Structures are given as C-alpha cells and as structure tokens.
Q: What sequence folds into this?
DNA sequence: CCAACGATGGTCT
DNA sequence: GACCATCGTTGGC
C-alpha cells in the first residue's frame, strides 16, 4: 500500500470526486476509506468558494491539483478539500465522510465517543478525528503528512445534491458509497 | 423518532 | 454586520 500516483488527480473534478470513493486517507497511524465526497466547480459554480474569484481564504483552491484546501466553518469546525482541475480555475473535492480503518482508539479519544459510526461521518467530524487543521492548508498530498493511498475497492456510487448550501443547491454533485453506514446523516 | 437551535470566529461587504 | 460546504443538544412527539 503506497501513495497514489500524481496523475490520478489530473482527471476532471467530477470524475475525481467519484474516483476518490473507496480510496484511503492516511495520516500517520490513522487510516480511513473515503465514502462521501462533493465536487465544487470553480468560478461558474455558485456554491463554490471560488465563485467570486480569488480571495485570501480560497487561494489554495486555485493551486495545482493534489494540494489541500482547509477552511474554518461556523467558527468551530474545519473542512478538508482536495484541489482539483487545472491550476487557476478554483475547483476542489470536499471529503465529507470516511469509514474508519486504523487508529480507531485515537479517533474515539479525539471525538469523545466510542461509537464507530460517529467518528468520521461528516466533514467536521473527520477533521476532528484526524486532527486536520489550518496548519495543513495549502500542503500537497505528495509530501506528507497526509496521503491518499490506492485501493482495489470498486464501490457502488449513489448521487445527490450537495449538503448545507444556500446557492447551487440544485446541482447533483454529492457522491457516496451506496448503503455505507459511515456516510454523513446515517446516524 | 425528528425538528429547532445555539455555539463560535474568520471572511467578506 | 451578515453569512456560513457543521455538530451536539434539547425538547417535542
């Protein structure tokens, strides 16, 4: 098991959002299977942070594919995104949920719960479980400490509208593993 | 079960 | 000063 090749991130953002399902997110001894993602499509997508052009906050989204974009939401939680598309267009994939695989006891400690289904089943939960913060903003997935590992899993993919948006909510850009109990909102 | 709501702070107007 | 790509708790049934 090793980090996925760089060319994997060069596919179109919607394809990448689907392809990431079933892959591993790895940080030290922590590992989880990506089971839920959302695509954000640059300046033409009203739900995307990049829709109003380059700002201090969204600058990492305009960087090269495979970089990391982390931002603070509601003053308390971080969201973890993988930058996608060509440099300068502001696209990214939000990682919304993971199925915990390794390092579960540490995740339980950080999340203050024993319940496995509640460790990484939401964008704010998984960053808490993995201790992903603003210090990871604008790093790349090739230089550590965070990596995407390849897998041979071929999950069945379901689609829906994105969650929590006020603009662009009609677009079907959320992708998740069908029937997986670690997807957000599954309780 | 589920709907409503408050916490909390950076970013942008 | 308003707006969030959220979550845990509360209080109703």
A:
């Amino acid at each position: 098991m090793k980090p996925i090749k760089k060319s994997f991130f060069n596919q179109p953002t919607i394809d990448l959002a689907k392809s990431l399902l079933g892959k591993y997110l790895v940080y030290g001894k922590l590992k989880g299977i990506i089971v839920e993602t959302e695509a954000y499509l640059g300046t033409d997508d009203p739900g995307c942070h990049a829709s109003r052009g380059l700002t201090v906050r969204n600058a990492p989204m305009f960087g090269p594919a495979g970089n990391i974009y982390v931002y603070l939401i509601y003053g308390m939680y971080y969201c973890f995104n993988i930058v996608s598309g060509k440099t300068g267009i502001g696209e990214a994939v939000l990682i919304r949920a993971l199925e915990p695989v390794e390092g579960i006891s540490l995740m339980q400690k950080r999340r203050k719960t024993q319940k496995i289904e509640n460790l990484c089943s939401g964008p704010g939960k998984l960053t808490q479980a993995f201790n992903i913060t603003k210090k990871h903003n604008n790093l790349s997935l090739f230089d550590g400490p965070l990596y995407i590992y390849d897998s041979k899993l071929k999950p069945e993919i379901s689609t829906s509208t994105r969650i929590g948006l006020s603009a662009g909510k009609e677009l079907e850009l959320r992708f998740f593993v069908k029937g997986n109990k670690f997807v957000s909102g599954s309780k």
